[in-house]
Design goal:
It is a single chain. Helices cover 68% and strands 1% of the residues. The chain contains 16 helices and 2 strands. The protein has a two-stranded antiparallel ribbon with strand order 1-2. Helix 1 packs across helix 9 (171-194), helix 2 runs antiparallel to helix 8 (149-168) and helix 8 (149-168) crosses helix 9 (171-194). The longest helix has 38 residues, at 331-368. It is globular.
Length: 374
């Protein structure tokens, strides 16, 4: 039986109780003031993306590079979330990716939703082993944040909103909303990535792990809810790979890239993404029809193989065209690319969409006829 970590457990239990009691008394006495809402929304957003874009996609996975002052903002505002230093957070997260769904996974969902959400934080952990974050340990700013994490966390989490409140003439309201309530909401939003993102949703890219894609989780976590994609393509700066998927963190990183604050944004090759999707959908279909004859299943495999090959070939062509466009994005290179590149890109997109429609139609046909009625 793991020993309880009393300090962390009490903090995680008492902060939401304090937020409810103090918040209730405050709202009943003076209501909710616009300045309090503003401080909460702004500081919650800044600290949340310091985790999603900073701790997670930058430090844990190296999905992009950024200016040094952006890293400083991540280090300062990430500390304000009371989610440990970058070294500790990233070490745990990399262990999670390496050992997902096993006993070596710090927040193994197979031990239950509650354990993955918050329970693992309330027990004593093994002595810190930072051997998997040597790349980060070489950064003096990250080492400095780790060394002075606790006073930095207290100041950034409570001192900053209190100071803002003093300037605005509402110190206690801003401390409540920008400090205590924001910390509690931020905790459980991040914790949902470890619990809900391994419970709710679909597995379109990898059936081997518990991670799932869900727009619900994405909305609650600044875009971290497309977790099945993330576990298949962890170093991609996007979690929501499609344009219509809710991922404010992706949009922030892309926006910073447009003004020179970020660069080297890694995108998994389109052909690999399509191949993963085809693999999962094919296996899902065949698993649902395991009671059919081997002849029927073999025929289905053959039909799917033909359209899959066409889809993956067009995805490879489109991926190459997109990478060529990215290489010729600026200045004279862009003008040279415009001569022939755009026509190739448009043609590749057209062929890819046609192949994707054919693939989906074949899947639906097999679901509705051959496999179901055999």
């Amino acid at each position: 039986m793991p020993r309880l970590n009393w300090i962390t457990a009490l903090f995680l239990v008492l902060t939401p109780i304090g937020a409810l009691v103090w918040g209730g008394l405050h709202v009943s006495a003076v209501g909710i003031r616009p300045a309090e809402v503003l401080v909460f929304l702004v500081y919650y957003s800044v600290t949340a993306v310091s985790i999603t874009a900073g701790y997670h996609r930058l430090f844990a996975h190296g999905a992009y590079d950024c200016r040094r002052f952006v890293k400083v903002v991540y280090l300062l505002c990430g500390a304000a979330t009371f989610q440990h230093s970058v070294l500790t957070w990233v070490s745990d997260h990399r262990h999670h990716h390496q050992h997902i769904d096993t006993d070596a996974d710090p927040y193994n969902i197979r031990r239950g939703f509650w354990w993955a959400h918050i329970g693992w934080l309330m027990v004593e952990q093994e002595p810190a082993d930072f051997s998997n974050v040597r790349d980060l340990s070489a950064d003096p700013l990250i080492r400095l944040q780790h060394r002075f994490y606790m006073p930095l966390a207290i100041f950034m989490s409570f001192g900053v909103p209190l100071g803002v409140g003093l300037v605005m003439g509402n110190p206690w309201g801003c401390l409540l909303w920008g400090g205590l309530i924001r910390t509690v909401v931020g905790h459980h939003a991040t914790f949902l990535v470890n619990s809900l993102a391994h419970t709710l949703g679909s597995k379109p890219y990898s059936r081997a792990v518990s991670a799932r894609d869900s727009v619900v989780t994405a909305v609650l976590t600044f875009g971290e809810g497309y977790h099945n994609f993330h576990h298949r393509f962890a170093t991609d700066y996007r979690n929501g790979v499609h344009r219509d998927q809710w991922d404010p963190t992706k949009w922030l990183i892309r926006g910073m890239a447009s003004i020179g604050w970020a660069w080297n944004l890694y995108r998994a090759p389109r052909e690999r993404i399509v191949a993963a999707r085809v693999e999962c959908e094919t296996q899902t279909l065949l698993d649902a029809c395991r009671d059919r004859s081997q002849h029927v299943i073999a025929a289905a495999r053959e039909r799917l193989a033909a359209v899959s090959a066409s889809l993956e070939a067009t995805a490879k062509r489109l991926g190459a065209a997109e990478r060529a466009r990215a290489r010729h994005a600026w200045g004279a290179a862009k003008r040279d690319y415009a001569k022939v590149g755009w026509s190739e890109l448009r043609a590749a997109r057209r062929d890819f969409r046609a192949a994707r429609r054919q693939w989906r139609a074949e899947l639906e046909t097999l679901r509705a006829t051959d496999l179901q009625s055999a």
